[in-house]
Amino acid sequence: MKKEFVVIGLGRFGGSIVRELIEQGMDVMAIDKFEDKIDQFANIATHAVMADSTDESVLRSLGIRNFDHVIVAIGDDIQASILTTLMLKEIGVKKITVKAQNDYHEKVLRRIGADKVVHPERDMGKRIAHNIVSNNVLDYLELSDEHSIVEIVANDHLIGNTIIGLDIRAQYGINIVAIKRKDDIIVSPQATDEIQKEDILIVIGADTDINRFEKKVMQSS
Amino acid sequence: MKKEFVVIGLGRFGGSIVRELIEQGMDVMAIDKFEDKIDQFANIATHAVMADSTDESVLRSLGIRNFDHVIVAIGDDIQASILTTLMLKEIGVKKITVKAQNDYHEKVLRRIGADKVVHPERDMGKRIAHNIVSNNVLDYLELSDEHSIVEIVANDHLIGNTIIGLDIRAQYGINIVAIKRKDDIIVSPQATDEIQKEDILIVIGADTDINRFEKKVMQSS
Ligand SMILES: Nc1ncnc2c1ncn2[C@@H]1O[C@H](COP(=O)(O)OP(=O)(O)OP(=O)(O)O)[C@@H](O)[C@H]1O
Ligand SMILES: Nc1ncnc2c1ncn2[C@@H]1O[C@H](COP(=O)(O)OP(=O)(O)OP(=O)(O)O)[C@@H](O)[C@H]1O
Ligand SMILES: [Ca+2]
Ligand SMILES: [Ca+2]
Ligand SMILES: [Ca+2]
Ligand SMILES: [Ca+2]
């Protein structure tokens, strides 16, 4: 069953959502008030419609009500973002995700019934800062406030050692869930597997334990 | 050894980087050309300086050269972003990360020597679209073009079964690396562990295999 989405606002964030939803085989109606955006998405989205989303009659005439999920990706015009969300809610849209510009904006959006509120720039800033601090960490997934899965580049201190030899689990309380070696992913590596040059270790554990391990890895590089 | 960073441009993205770097214990000089931004970050950053980064004499007088890493988070003014990057490079800054607005912008930045170019809105759009498509998937980490680690909400079809009983590894070729249960993270769950209501499964595998598993999980919910 193909899901049907509406994306309102085709800036970098909204535009990227349209592309990815289409790539995943979804139906997407893309809406923007500027013609150049509509031209840009005419061949990408299932439908591209030039409309001002703060005009309720327009929203109704497009049959927005019948879509599964509407994403409001309007940026600088906070008033338009709030008004659009309010009307989508009144029309009876089942699921509404909205991009917020700040905490105050988020508060208003939640009060009027937005199901999900996202802060793309803020979240990505956090992510990138995290990756920047330690050069060995490539990417990560936060499992909870205290646990993460982290990609760590193996350095000279680790290369040539076996997993059991490094005694990582006992020494740091973390586990290597996989090793990225060139184009391969080695899931659940054996304790006797030797770490090679350019390996990327995918480790899981408490943030404090992972940090301790990162420090150790960095120190000696 | 405390690392020293400069962040130029205190919009949502740049501002979030400043906050996160400070939280991680780093030294951060925050620069913006608008006074209200400087007021906002005066008590957050190590130093907050009002300056136009396209003015080379200003950059030199601030001793930018001696910092470990400069992040250029200027948005709409692409010309200022490019000019700033060019001068940072000429001054001899070791590491420069720049936010790009589009592919053309990225191309120019790389040509003039930016070490890392990021597209926060685009990347987060992709991420959020991915999470939106399947309601059961909460978050994910791409390990390669073909492999990921994904957080999947357990549904009625899974609850009450043991991992060995579901035969997930043989049936789908994926592994459960952890289970998120309320505030706990159970790393490397036992084959005989029973999946409980509201469990979140952290699985690793090929995207095609994970998709197959997701479909199965969703179908029957
Ligand atoms: N009332 C409206 N109806 C339809 N589209 C709108 C409306 N208001 C704004 N938009 C569109 O929303 C898009 C995103 O807005 P804007 O460029 O302000 O956001 P942004 O946060 O700077 O974007 P980015 O995702 O690139 O960071 C623009 O293309 C704009 O034309
Ligand atoms: N030449 C410059 N020197 C210093 N700061 C600058 C310069 N040009 C722009 N800035 C600052 O960069 C910040 C970010 O720019 P802008 O708001 O255009 O980006 P944006 O991409 O919309 O931001 P966001 O991260 O919120 O999406 C602004 O606070 C702006 O004042
Ligand atoms: Ca903007
Ligand atoms: Ca933006
Ligand atoms: Ca954390
Ligand atoms: Ca992928």
From TrEMBL, chains A, B:
Name listed for the protein in its UniProt record: Potassium transporter Trk
Every RCK N-terminal domain range: 2-118
MF terms (GO), sorted A to Z: monoatomic cation transmembrane transporter activity
GO biological process, one term: potassium ion transport
InterPro entries the record matches: NAD(P)-bd_dom_sf, RCK_C, RCK_C_sf, RCK_N, Trk_Ktr_HKT_K-transport
Start and end residues of each RCK C-terminal domain: 135-219
